[in-house]
Amino acid sequence: MKIVVTGSTGFVGRHLVPELLNEGHELLELTRDTAKSENLYGAATQKHLLDADQDGLKNALKAFQPDAVIHLASFLTSADDYNNVTKLIDSNIIFLCSLLDALKETDLQLFINTGTFAEYFKGDGILKPAYLYAATKTASRSFLDYYSNVYNFKNVNVIPYTIYGGKDSQKKIIDIIYESIGAANPVDLSPGEQVLDFIHIQDVVDFYKALIKQAATVPHNSTFQLGTGKGSTIKQLAATIEEASGGKTKINWGGKAYRPSDVMYAVADTELAKAVLNWSSNVSLDQGVKIFLGDK
């Protein structure tokens, strides 16, 4: 299959692209940093440098004629800061519209859009964005619906929950907890009672691969919540790390107050993935933490 990938050099992209290549797919990366892409994938992928040239993007996509798009790129921040609004809209809405417009002269079958569990502030499956980033991801769905209905391709929204594992330049909560072992001073964290669905990066990669394999039968305008379906508090994650590592974390629970936008319950409803794709996660939290520690 011919697949366009955005965000190919990001956290999920760096783990997904090599596996798509191993399965024989032909990939076109849309990237703002071709040097970084070259370092990661060399000549294994085609590359188009994203700039302000809309005609250039249209021509590249028309020449490639993709069967599917995996849209991973976004500007992510949990800060409630007006100064980020322009960048959020540019990255998460305007770029999406630019991409969708450029796809009009292709025979695209499936557009896979990636959202965030923070679109569901109350954790009940009802769209109510927790912060500005999540609001732009929710708003982007309307633009995707418009283009997919007018230009006759299927769209799917994927909502990853709390991803961990693998190599990432940005620290996640699991890294902060692990690095507190042996620290000179306790690390200030929230009270740690948030219930989150921790999903290993390998499960995330396997899910996107399953979507691609079943592109012909996946329902139009469906939303898949990508997680394990099991919740753990952050304190329970810390206990799992202690048990697997044999070390003692040094955390001042409650040293930081909860923020008004903190999502207190975020556990994926995995029934649609099971019913439509026959997919469920394979890596338990205990197993994933051991893999995480083995990669250190």
The H-level CATH homologous superfamily of the largest domain, spelled out, is: NAD(P)-binding Rossmann-like Domain
Strand content: 15-25%
Biggest sheet architecture:
7 strands, parallel
Shape summary: globular
**Percent helix:** 25-40%
Q: Give the class from helix and strand content and strand pairing.
A: alpha/beta
Distance between the termini: 35 Å
Q: What is the CATH architecture assignment of the largest domain?
A: 3-Layer(aba) Sandwich
Order of helices and strands: EHEHEHEHEHEEHEEEHEEHEEHH
Number of domains: 2
Number of helices: 10
Which residue ranges are poorly predicted, with pLDDT under 50 across at least 5 consecutive positions? none
InterPro entries: Epimerase_deHydtase, NAD(P)-bd_dom_sf
Family: Belongs to the NAD(P)-dependent epimerase/dehydratase family.
Organism: Mucilaginibacter gossypii
Protein name: Nucleoside-diphosphate-sugar epimerase
Q: Would you summarize the structure shown here?
A:
The chain is an alpha/beta fold. It has helices at residues 11-22, 34-41, 54-64, 85-102, 132-151, 173-179, 201-213, 234-245, 271-277, 285-294; strands at residues 2-6, 26-31, 46-49, 68-71, 110-114, 154-160, 162-164, 187-189, 195-196, 198-200, 222-226, 232-233, 251-253, 265-266.
